[in-house]
Amino acid sequence: MFAKLLKHDTKAVFKYWWLGAAASLLLALLGGFCMKIANVDYTKYEILPILGSIGVSLTRLGIYLLPLFSTILLVVRYYKHFFTDEGYLTFTLPVRKNTLLDSKVATGFVFSVLSTCVCLLSLYIIILIGEPEVIGTEEFYYEYSSIGHSIMMICFGYDYNLRFLQALGSYAVPYVILIVLIAIASIIVQLLFIYGCITLASSIVKKHKVLTAIGIYYGASSVVAVVLAVLSVLGLFSSYTTFSMSYVSEPAYDFRMTLLLLTGVFGCMLVVIGALYLLLTFLLDKKLNLE
Amino acid sequence: MKKLLSVLFVIILLTASLLCTVPSAYAEKYSTKWTLAPKGEYLTHNDKKYYPIPNLPGSAFHFFYDLEYSDISGIDYLTVYLDYEDEEMRSLFGPYSKVYVPTDVDCACVQVEFGASYDSFYMVYVEESYLDEYTNLAKGIADSYKCSNSYYYSLDFPLSSEDMNTWLSGESITTKALMLGAYDSGCIEGFDKTGLVSAVCGNFFIDRKNQEVYLLPFGAIDTDVYQWYDLGIYTDVTVYKLEDGKLKDDLIEYFYTEPEDDLEWLEPEEEDYTLGIIFCCFLFGVVPVLFTAFSIVMLCVIKDKKYHRAYITMLTGSVLVFVACIAVIVIII
User: Is the ipTM of this structure higher than 0.95?
Assistant: First the structure.
């Protein structure tokens, strides 16, 4: 039954998602040509390289909007499928509410990963058309890793760099595994967090559920930000910095610390996932309000 | 309302007048016209002439190098723009060359900064009647001297000119500059009569193992190149052995003694990580244990299996965090 739910959810989201993906790829083509124009030397039309650079920036911005578009589609799907008139049908299906939730999370994960892949592909197309000579060189990785770097920010800012992986040696495999697990967990945390805000809003109010959900989302995000700020003031992150950054600067850098800290991060994310899942299950089970 | 505006207007007028008179009064007291003669031969100020100190081998005036550290030297100074007698000098050095003039003390020296960017250079100009005294100082002949120690900001060991003469009359040894690299070294500065202007006139080298001290006077270096510590390693140098036993022992003891309460504020405070460590242990040690216990209890108590997945996830996560925390502590210890 889970497979069927997943199939229907995927189809429902894909119906509009492919438009965003296609737009992203088209922007990539446009961006590639803009990059070619931006790299032109010795032209009497000096405005051309400037326009080309602006074009590249705008197309990249458009490409980065795809994950946002994907998130909006997932949120709309979740809300409409659970908390509007469609919800009456949804919750009469012969499946547990957990399975319905699992299907939503799985769909969200799939489209998050797909959106990221399309973004990376689009950036690659820009470079392939605009500056193909840098492919395979170190410059390519700096250019290409701009989105990879943001993904790797969960690794406390360590540069996603081939040389770093080489330096890791035997620790490279567990490091990459942990990075991948943390990436998966962060996507799930984000999805559960958004779904939790929508579910909570739908449980407590009868009107203006969307606005309430947005308010809860920003409120909860602010609370999390304040908690993290308090923790850093209390010396939490400075201790971490002492323990790990001082190791990084030493010739005999101890990668075990990095791996253990990443393990700790992954563990924290699992706890958060469990807590959010518990909240969602409880709300859907006991506090569902479809009026 | 009109009265209020009038009062305000009068106050503004009075304030503006006062502010305008202050610079004039200040400028009157410190007549700011310093004029450079053609070819930089001398400076003219208030009918006095100031001549440059030639760049003698091994000489360095410290007075104006301490301008940046005026809290230590205690000298305040006024910065004025240099005027020129002829256009050739003006076009060479530009309109923004400066003269640094001490304001609190009656000093016979001023420093001129030629140019106004990263490649500006400095020259010291001395009032005519003091020229011989400061030229001698640049050569290393002073009324009094002080020695530094291995803590560079300390310059407290006094030497009289008689001590220096005694030292220079000791055994002289000619060697390669390279050989002096094995010893600890400090500098000796000669001071003028006011005690505010100094010039480094030599280095001393301490052979700690054999408890000997050697003087390398810069005035004896026969080169045309301005040198500081940067002697060519194969340069022949003549050093003088300090034969006064008591002076030698005192100097060695001073050299290796850390000054008390001296610029401790420069040392960065050691960060106290105690609170951070305690908090980390609480957050990554105690809290995961609580979460683990909570999850286990709820798994046993709650029979509804739809919640079990969440508790198992929390249990796994808190165990991972706890194990990572213990491992970090083990590695650090």
Answer: no
The per-residue DSSP string of B12-62 comes to HHHHHHHHHHHHHHHHHHS----EEPGGG--EEETTEEEEEPP--TT--B-
Distance of CA A39 to the CA centre of its chain: 31
Find residues 286-305 of chain B whose CB sits inside 8 Å of chain A: 288, 291, 295
Q: What kind and span of H or E run contains A21?
A: helix A2-38
* Of the candidate ranges A12-16, A283-287, B47-51, B118-122, the one whose mean pLDDT is the lowest: B118-122
3-class DSSP string for B183-197: CEEEEEEEECCCCCC
DSSP state, A250?
A: S
Q: Are A247 and A256 in contact (CB under 8 A)?
A: no
Do the strands B98-102 and B35-36 form a parallel or antiparallel pair, or are they unpaired?
unpaired
Which DSSP letter does residue B285 get?
I
Sheet holding B198-207, edge to edge: B155-160, B144-148, B184-191, B198-207, B212-217, B236-241, B172-176
Q: Which residue of B has its CA nearest to A265?
A: B321
What local confidence, expressed as pLDDT, does residue B79 receive? Answer: 78
What's the mean per-residue pLDDT of chain A?
78
- How far from each other are the two terminal CA atoms of chain A, in whole angstroms? 27
B330 touches chain A (CB under 8 A): no
Phi-psi region of A34 (alpha: psi -120 to 50; beta: other; left: phi over 0): alpha
Distance set, CA A286 to CA A199, A236, A283, B314 (Å):
12, 37, 5, 21
Query: What integer pLDDT is reported at residue B72 of this predicted model?
Result: 41
- Could you say which residues of chain B have pLDDT below 70? 1, 18-32, 54-76, 104-107, 116-118, 152-155, 219-233, 259-273, 276
Residue closest to B241 by CA, chosen among B186, B209, B208, B204: B204
Chain A: residue nearest B315 by CA?
A271
| Contact status, residue A52 vs residue A37, Cβ threshold 8 Å | yes
Q: Which of A236, A274, A275 sits opposite B279 (nearest CB)?
A: A236
Residue A62 and residue A24 in contact, taking contact as beta carbons nearer than 8 Å: yes
Pairing of strands B35-36, B83-84: parallel
How many angstroms separate the CA atoms of B22 and B40, rounded? 32
Q: What angle do CA A194, A195, A198 make, to 5 degrees?
A: 90
